Amino acid sequence: MSGFNELRLTGVGRRFGTADALADLDLTIRRGEFIALLGPSGCGKSTALNCLAGLLPLTAGSIWQDDQRIDTLPPEKRGFGMVFQNYALFPHLTVRDNIAFGLRMRRLPKDEVRRRTEAAIEMVRLADHASKLPGQLSGGQQQRVAIARATVLEPSLVLMDEPLSNLDAKLRLEMRTEIRRLHQSLGLTTVYVTHDQEEALSMADRLVVMRLGRVQQIGTPEEVHTKPATWHVADFMGYRNLLPLTVSRVDGDAVVVPLGGTTVEGVAQRPASATSGGEILSVGDEAIAAVRPEDVRLGNDDVTGLRGRVEVVEYQGRELAAEVTLPDGVRLHTRTDRKVEPGEHVSITITPGRLLVYPSDGSADLP
Ligand code: ATP
Hints:
Elements: E1 6-16, E2 19-30, E3 34-38, H1 45-53, E4 60-65, E5 68-69, H2 75-78, E6 80-83, H3 95-105, H4 110-123, H5 139-151, E7 157-161, H6 169-185, E8 190-194, H7 197-203, E9 206-211, E10 214-219, H8 221-226, H9 231-236, E11 241-246, E12 249-251, E13 254-259, E14 262-268, E15 286-291, E16 296-299, E17 307-316, E18 319-325, E19 331-336, E20 345-350, E21 356-359
Helix pairs in contact: 3-4, 3-5
The structure holds adenosine-5'-triphosphate.
């Protein structure tokens, strides 16, 4: 199947027995985009990918490639390429034959098979290994073969399910750049499943953050990182301080909440489902405040009135990460560039505008 301008998933769902592994997925993928499906284990990422691939029939919704409905087509008719975590290479075929396999299956002329195979080998920088068997390659090299084998067929969409999870940390970093480079140079459209937020943030044009089978937020890395739509997304994006509390005062989007025997100001966050207008939070509401450790700074001046006792100190590159207990017993993850010791009493400053306050949704899975 040739390329498309847009791939649209509308109300896509997949139920196993009585459980929704995936529900109400609405997503438009534009040609050339790199989309990451992100979320904790079991949130429905692989289910979404398998529905797209045609490996799993939908139990609700439809998938459209421009004006053509494709969710009723078998996988081979969709013309998508797939790259899995376990590479799924043919162990008895050389790198070259693994890559050429799909082209031969299509009964393309020999010359064309040779030309396209060699170009793909060059593209993934495996020219020196083309005659080897997969078992003679490193994990990263095997994953490059899998990528070449999927992309040599010039698929309209490439689906990748945690392709880097079997690699060591250094190779994972290298392969992130490599995959992004291939995506760009081959003009691919890519849907990439990962549970690693850094991987998703660094590679994708847009992220689809999922939880319990449902989309929590769709946005650019910057949007998801700086304005998480729910406290669950914040949790997933490294807002390690998640504080259940009761709202003391409200002035539009500015809300005042109690913390450490004093009060601090935060910014009320509108849930994606809420219609605009009206106040998001009222005095007395149960809420969850979220702030990153990087935005909770230690100092020795007492400008904010917020103070605490240092409990644990860890080196984190150029800064120290410190856990601090406040007079009300709340424990905060903080950062500091000055030397602090456990037991020391310190003042604490929260970067203005960075304490996000979400309406409590009653879910009981606070970390
Ligand atoms: P992981 O990263 O661990 O693979 P995921 O986000 O990809 O997780 P899915 O594999 O899509 O999650 O699973 C979503 C939910 O659907 C899980 O609760 C899972 O147990 C359930 N599920 C997936 N496949 C099946 C199946 N074939 N039969 C029954 N339940 C299933």
